[in-house]
Amino acid sequence: MSVKKLIAGNWKMNGSLAANEALLRALASGMPVQSVCAVAVCVPAPYLAQFQAMAVTLPALDGIDLGAQDVSAKASGAYTGEVSASMLKDFGCRYAIVGHSERRQYHFETDTLVAEKTQQALAAGITPIVCVGETLAEREAGQTESVVKRQLAAVIHANGHCISEIVVAYEPVWAIGTGKTATPEEAQAVHAVLRAQLKAATDHADRVKILYGGSMNAANAASLLAQADIDGGLIGGASLKAADFLTIIAAAVV
Ligand code: 13P
Predict the structure, then answer these.
(1) pLDDT digits 0-9 by tens, 94-139
(2) Predicted TM-score of the model (pTM)
(3) Distance from the CA of 19 to the CA of which of 46, 54, 130, 151 falls in 20 to 30 A?
(4) Is 75 part of a structural domain of the chain?
(5) CATH code at position 216
(6) Burial annotation 240-252 (CB, 10 A radius, 16+ → b, else e)
């Protein structure tokens, strides 16, 4: 298990200049004085600059890293609407989510595309948070393990020894935004499978953080984060409420 847990908020397509400012100010003022875990917020691309500007005048934001929610599979060029990894780097991004199930589902992202995005992020010095997870139908058909292993295998195959630099997020699709959380035991079982797969690919698998995501909230975070292979959380809805997100951060003491 890696040393420090990572609590990352995925704001998804929510927010406004005013709402973000209020949320970031509330987070900054409530952050633990002594950092107990790594914290990040993955904001919509247009608001990366807002975070960067606020961090200049609000030193308490130092304890929170910036992340994007996606990155292009291409380095630059005629790809209208895309945002490259080097652009994210310009705005101080430390992380980029890749392969979120909402992008796989609504934007038809394939395992190969997700692997290419991971490569672009790593090449720019950005830590990709690679999301994997099964749908309800896949779980009911007993395919959970094969689905997540297939999704992670594509990323391992494309990234070779750099694989120890990624963060993995296990997000069962049926648990996202539904209020249905995997039990700590269900989540741990899948995390152990992912850890074993990483161990077969790198000697440094123990330093790869494997996050859980899917209806993690202030009430259930502690029991999920207590599991041996759960190294943090990727939090959607609850990351939009400062008090809830801060409670999850406090639950991530190693
Ligand atoms: P919820 O926490 O809203 O279920 O979202 C999880 C998620 O998709 C994080 O990326």
Answers:
(1) 999 999 999 999 999 999 999 999 999 999 999 999 999 999 999 9
(2) 0.97
(3) 130
(4) no
(5) 3.20.20.70
(6) bebebbbbbbbbb
